Automatic annotation (TrEMBL), chains A, B:
Gene Ontology molecular-function annotations: metal ion binding; peptidase activity
Database matches in SUPFAM superfamilies: Zn-dependent exopeptidases (SSF53187)
Keywords for this protein: Hydrolase, Metal-binding, Protease
Name under which the protein is recorded: Dipeptidase
């Protein structure tokens, strides 16, 4: 594969055009009005896999949106790489904050602006083009299987069934996913773990109806005030989470592990400027990288209650609610944390209110072994492509299907993401650098090459 | 006026029919789509005043909705009663919670269900019918002036201008208002004070955009969490308000005053059952009546931030907001409390967020002197009509125009309300007991009679 750069260079405009075609599909899985578009996207992905040379391409129906499958088995003796990605995207709202329309990809300053540009169309499509590249440049070093789903942004609930029912078809030696980010192109990195998730909704009810805040104010518990007090109590003065037992299963990192994480380049002033904050906030005793990558956290994702329209209404609300999620680290368990939260939240509620806790969904934390052949192959590929070794980092986000693959298929995952934290995933003006897109297409074939070599095939 | 009961008895169906006609106008001042209805209501009120015998009836235009004026001057030597009321109503939302349509008055179990049944159409219209009754039964003991506005539910902002520009026309010896409630028909009461109000909106901004709660969670202050902590800190463990200086101007009641307030009949079990709560909540050291009537309070009227739709979104929000209002007691000042709140709220904000405080509106607390001729006249009227003396109570709500009348016209107000706390003002299924409506029409002429007598005319 001496001709990687040359092939990319010769085909760069087409690679970009094809991605733009893919980005023009408004494949929003959360909103039923986009259903025809999501289904068309699946067909487009299937066609592109076929065009690139995949066999047995199938748009596999599920109870929800289809999963696109394709494979190229070159030699049963060679190792098999299962590429996972997703063709669905987050809703584009709030639309008014987009500088250019979310489904009309636009290049500004070397960056592709579009919903899904990075998450995950731009990233999974690199694998399709890298596959084409390998097919046209001496063939595949490994067998390859593609599984591109359409429900990642709504919880991947049908993927679990698909994986359980297709264990033989999905048999592989490693799962390769590009759906995460690097520190920067100057500081390439490889994520070695992901946080798990436990997401719940709480509802606090005070009086049985909205009350006049003058007639009753001061004599009846206000559920918004009580909810505020309950939420406030979930972090202590050092921003430790106060739920009893919450940290019981957390394995403290060794000083060496902590040093490795903190060795990653980090400019606090730049970080704060990017976010527009004057001060950072977090658990006492830990650095930013440790807080986001290695420590469990609890965030209020939404809160509401009472009168939230224009102007003033003097109401003492009957109810107040919040969506609260916790990110979990290795050895914590989503179900256990869900139960600990629920018991604690119910316990701290004063008798003057009633509390209802409803779990939404969860996902288990994962750690990628750094001594595996697959990790080493990724390390070598990046080192060759970027001219420097990747820094191991811990990702703060959650990709629940990684734990699923491990549990159901018995395969570990390599998280070889080429995005950046500044790509505004899930936000208006999502972008992906064209440079990163091409860099990914160049790096992926090297992974296949080294994975084959290191596997001894 | 020996024939009061007889006249009411003979005209009861017509009195009810006319009120029903008035209630059928959806005179919602807050929503511009009802504008033609609000204007028609003003015309209807003017016509009914004329029909009852008022002179100089005028639908007085303002920058907003008109104020209906009418008067009957029988003798310049007699005292003058200025009747204030409002023909506008609160929005009927949420409509789905109404058992019968809000603008189709329906009688169930002796109660009129309709938006405005009690607040304030049912109550001010008693004065129109009592005026008719006096005109038909020996004439007026006092001169009478009516000022019925159409913007009470949206802050009465044009009333202030009208009052300032019409001081001579509005000259009177007392303002008489029926827009409050009694303990019960078995326990008639007279409100001797109203709380003031200071209403503000707060916005807490963390990062400059919504963030992925996995990538950034734990390292950046979450404005919803910070807002919860700030709100939680506004009451201490005894539910005292923690804003420095907040209580400085509060005049503690004497033991006698406290005893008088607590002598009012109160069944805590019934109070809790009506509200559906298992425990009451409030400032330590005070009873329910003291908490709602004599102590300043702070309530969250609304709170919102982050993702509040269906399902789950793992966002770390950029902003969180709340509407917060404080009820004030005599000698506290709305502007001063607004400034104290603002300074405190800005001060307690951690450096990790930015805070914006926006005042909505305010109103001053009022106390009605119980040694005045007008109060004594009201006392005598109720005693005669109900067969027992009224209990003096302190109202928890606010009617900012009462302080306005005192400041601009130099006249005190008598709050002779015939509603009940259970009338669901501002809520679905607002009602007014037919019994209370007739009882009001019977009692009001007695007030005029005794006010004239006690004034020595």
């Amino acid at each position: 594969m001496q001709n990687i750069k040359q092939y990319v260079e010769q085909n760069k405009q087409r690679f970009l055009d094809e991605l733009f075609d893919l980005l023009r599909f408004p494949s929003v899985s959360a909103d039923p009005k986009y259903k025809p578009d999501v289904l068309e996207t699946a067909d487009y992905v299937a066609k592109k896999l076929s065009d690139a040379g995949a066999d047995k391409v199938e748009v596999c129906q599920t109870a929800g949106y289809p999963i696109v499958y394709g494979e190229k088995i070159v030699d049963a003796a060679k190792p098999t790489v299962l590429v996972y990605g997703h063709y669905d995207v987050q809703p584009p709202d709030p639309l008014e904050l987009w500088k250019t329309p979310p489904f009309e990809p636009t290049v500004r300053d070397g960056k592709i602006y579009a919903r899904g540009a990075c998450d995950d169309k731009g990233q999974f499509y690199m694998h399709v083009k890298a596959f084409e590249l390998m097919m046209q440049n001496g063939g595949l070093p490994c067998n390859i299987k593609f599984m591109i789903e359409g429900e990642e942004e709504v919880g991947s609930s049908n993927l679990e069934i698909f994986v359980k029912e297709n264990k033989q078809r999905l048999k592989a030696d490693v799962v390769l996913i590009s759906d995460t980010s690097m520190i920067s192109m100057e500081h390439p990195s490889l994520e070695t773990g992901l946080r798990g998730l436990s997401y719940l909704e709480v509802e606090v009810t005070g009086p049985n109806r909205d009350l006049h805040s003058g007639v009753y104010g001061g004599a009846v518990a206000n559920p918004a005030t009580i909810l505020a007090k309950m939420i406030a109590s979930l972090h202590d003065e050092n921003n430790h989470i106060t739920i009893p037992g919450f940290y019981d299963d957390v394995i403290d990192l060794t000083p060496d592990e902590r040093n490795a994480i903190n060795d990653a380049p980090y400019n606090e002033a730049e970080y704060m400027t990017d976010l527009g904050v004057d001060e950072l906030w977090g658990e006492k005793g830990y650095t930013t990288f440790e807080r986001t990558g290695t420590r469990p956290t609890l965030e209020v994702n939404g809160i509401w209650g009472g009168y939230i329209g224009e102007g003033a209404k003097t109401v003492l609300p009957s109810k107040a609610s919040a969506k609260i999620s916790m990110r979990l680290v290795p050895n914590q368990h989503s179900d256990k944390i869900r139960d600990l939260f629920t018991a604690h939240f119910e316990k701290i509620a004063p008798k003057s209110v009633k509390v209802k806790v409803t779990p939404h969904h969860g996902g288990e934390p994962v750690v990628t072994p750094t001594d595996s052949v697959a990790y080493q192959a990724a390390q070598k590929a990046i080192t060759e492509s970027f001219g420097k070794a990747p820094i191991p980092t811990r990702g703060g986000g959650s990709i629940p299907i990684v734990a699923l693959f491990e549990a159901e298929l018995g395969i570990k995952t390599v998280l070889m993401g080429f995005g950046l934290d500044s790509d505004a995933l899930h936000s208006p003006n999502e972008k992906y650098d064209i440079y990163n897109y091409y860099k990914g297409i160049e790096t992926i074939p090297l992974f296949h090459k080294y994975f084959a070599e290191l596997s001894g095939s």
